[in-house]
Structures are given as C-alpha cells and as structure tokens.
C-alpha cells in the first residue's frame, strides 16, 4: 500500500458509528452489536485502529493484549476497498502494536470458509494450531485458531 490519501490511526469511541457501519456490512450473519463494539473500543487492554481513505473509514481492526498474549479481535476492509493491500497493511500494524505492548505471541480465529483471510494470515506466517467445531453461530462454521510466535 502506497497511497497518500490513506491514513491509519488509533480508533476511539468517537469512531463507533463508522465502525458499526463497516461491521454490519461485512459480517451480515454474525456482526457484533453496538454495545459489544463500544465495550471493545473502551477496553483498556484493547487497541483499535481505523484506516481512512480521503477521510472516510474504509477498514478497522483491533487487538487485545494481556501479558505476553495478543489476540486479533477483528479486522475488516470495506467491500469496495479489498484486494488493494489495506488488509495486509492493517495486519502488519496490529502486529507491530502487539509487539509495542510487549506481546510475544499473537492468536486469531478465522472462519474455515474464509480462504482470503486465511491466505493473508498464512502469508504473515500464522500457523493453524486448533479447530473449534461449529464455533461461528448461527451458521455453525468451524473456527480455525492460528498463532504466530514470535509476533
Ligand atoms: C480478509 C481481508 C481483511 C483482507 O483484506 P484485503 O485488503 O482485501 O487484503 P489485501 O489486499 O491486503 O491482501 C492481503 C492478502 O490477503 C489474501 N487475499 C486477499 N484477497 C484475496 C482473494 N480475493 N483471493 C485470494 N487471496 C486473497 C492474499 O494472501 C493477499 O496477499 P497478496 O495480495 O500478496 O496475494 C478482507 O478481505 C476482509 O475484510 N474480508 C471480510 C472480513 C473478514 O473476513 N475479516 C477477517 C475475519 S478473521
């Protein structure tokens, strides 16, 4: 990604409306509700980031860091902005943020029916360590648990 109109910054609860718009458009069957997202943005162990293009949020993602473990809470790029390197840039930023917070390893869960995201994580050297059967409801889709160590 090399686009001067793109800006990546830390998110706050002021971004809740924009993030919820992206969240509900991206995850039609299992979007987090507004209260959950608000708690995510307010949590002191979380770091959320927004990626803006021409001052419009087009992607967001967040991590939770507790002791040496970082978890990717969520990451999404707006439909019309995918395939342009934004997801990779955001993931690399989340990994750097995790290291800055002292994390030694990073975990994430991804739907087994999401090959694009799995390809992104594998390209960043995340490895599959577990499967949670039927984890994503109401669809009953497995979660693939992935880890990168050191992050
Ligand atoms: C997964 C997601 C975040 C990737 O973001 P993106 O901006 O489209 O991805 P990028 O353009 O940075 O591509 C990064 C890598 O992802 C993979 N990828 C992305 N789109 C792909 C596609 N259509 N087909 C195959 N691989 C793809 C590739 O490995 C790609 O690397 P490459 O360009 O070197 O081949 C984005 O597709 C998205 O928001 N999807 C919906 C929400 C979601 O699935 N979130 C993850 C939940 S765990």
TrEMBL record:
<dbReference type="InterPro" id="IPR016181">
    <property type="entry name" value="Acyl_CoA_acyltransferase"/>
</dbReference>
<dbReference type="GO" id="GO:0008999">
    <property type="term" value="F:protein-N-terminal-alanine acetyltransferase activity"/>
</dbReference>
<feature type="domain" description="N-acetyltransferase">
    <location>
        <begin position="6"/>
        <end position="151"/>
    </location>
</feature>
<keyword id="KW-0963">Cytoplasm</keyword>
<dbReference type="Pfam" id="PF00583">
    <property type="entry name" value="Acetyltransf_1"/>
</dbReference>
<keyword id="KW-0012">Acyltransferase</keyword>
<dbReference type="InterPro" id="IPR050832">
    <property type="entry name" value="Bact_Acetyltransf"/>
</dbReference>
<keyword id="KW-0808">Transferase</keyword>
<comment type="function">
    <text>Acetylates the N-terminal alanine of ribosomal protein bS18.</text>
</comment>
<protein>
    <recommendedName>
        <fullName>[Ribosomal protein bS18]-alanine N-acetyltransferase</fullName>
        <ecNumber>2.3.1.266</ecNumber>
    </recommendedName>
</protein>
<dbReference type="InterPro" id="IPR000182">
    <property type="entry name" value="GNAT_dom"/>
</dbReference>
<dbReference type="GO" id="GO:0005737">
    <property type="term" value="C:cytoplasm"/>
</dbReference>
<dbReference type="InterPro" id="IPR006464">
    <property type="entry name" value="AcTrfase_RimI/Ard1"/>
</dbReference>
<comment type="similarity">
    <text>Belongs to the acetyltransferase family. RimI subfamily.</text>
</comment>
């Amino acid at each position: 990604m090399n686009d001067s109109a793109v800006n990546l910054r830390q998110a706050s609860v002021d971004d809740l409306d924009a993030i919820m718009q992206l969240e509900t458009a991206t995850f039609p069957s299992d979007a987090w509700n507004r209260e959950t997202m608000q708690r995510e943005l307010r949590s002191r162990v979380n770091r959320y980031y927004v990626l803006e293009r021409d001052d419009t949020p087009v992607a967001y993602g967040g991590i939770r860091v507790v002791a040496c473990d970082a978890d990717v809470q969520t990451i999404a790029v707006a439909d019309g902005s995918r395939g342009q390197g934004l997801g990779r840039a955001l993931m690399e930023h989340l990994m750097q943020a995790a290291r800055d917070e002292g994390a030694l390893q990073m975990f994430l869960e991804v739907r087994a029916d999401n090959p694009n995201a799995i390809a992104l994580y594998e390209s960043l050297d995340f490895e599959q360590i577990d499967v949670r059967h039927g984890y994503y409801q109401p669809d009953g889709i497995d979660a693939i648990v992935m880890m990168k160590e050191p992050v």
